[in-house]
Amino acid sequence: MIDRTIMYRLIGAGIMVLSASIILPLILDGERPEELDMQVQVTSPPAFPTIEIAPVQPVDSLPVASMQDSGSDTGNIELIPVPKAAKDVSQISAAQPEVSTPQVKAPVEKRTPTVVADRWTLQIATFKSKDNATRLVEKLKAAKYDAYSLTTNSLYKVYVGPELKREVSDKLRDEIKKEFSLSGIVVKYSVN
After folding, report:
1. Where are the beta strands (DSSP E) in 26-154?
2. PANTHER family in the record, alphabetically (predicted)?
3. Where are the beta strands (DSSP E) in the chain?
């Protein structure tokens, strides 16, 4: 006997062939849509002159023109005079001495880059929800801590600080751990 799954598959394939033989002639009845019956007339292409290009010849076989023949066209070239400076040194007479103040440039001070001391901040927690981070910041601010939140890669990080000395951040970590049972990590403060 034939297995039931094979029998169901054969029945399904038969139904598919039967429905295709009924539906396909209705879809593909051979009638052409009216939109495709338009006659499109294309104009003839414009006439471009054909230019024949001479094949490349070696330099030795080209005729050499003399310098006098090629120099006959130089009569058409005009040289543009260069304008003189407003006060040319050769034109200043001794009767009219000109008093000029020497221009001395101020010495350029080399600025040394200001070195910003490392600052430390205490990272308390990281949340996916902005509401959780906001609640913790408000809770820490109510307890008189300088708390703030930053967003990085769709995560909300809660910080306390920054402090100039790492020891101060370490003390804050211990206080917050006792008061809120939150253990944080001390990291370098970044403006970003």
Report:
1. 120-127, 147-152
2. CELL DIVISION PROTEIN DEDD, CELL DIVISION PROTEIN DEDD-RELATED
3. 120-127, 147-152, 155-163, 185-188
Q: How many CB atoms lie within 10 A of CB 45?
A: 6
Q: What tens-digit pLDDT sequence spans the chain (192 residues)?
A: 678 999 999 999 999 999 999 888 878 877 777 777 778 788 888 888 888 888 887 877 777 665 445 555 555 777 777 776 655 555 555 545 555 566 666 666 677 666 667 888 989 899 998 999 999 999 999 988 888 888 888 899 999 988 888 898 889 889 888 888 888 888 888 775
Residue 169: its H or E element: helix 166-180
Q: Which CATH number fits domain 118-191: 3.40.50.740, 3.30.70.1070, 1.25.40.10, 3.40.50.150?
A: 3.30.70.1070
- HSE-up of 117 (CA within 13 Å, CB side)? 7
The burial of 184, by beta-carbon neighbours within 10 Å (0-12 exposed, 13-18 middle, 19 or more buried), is given as buried
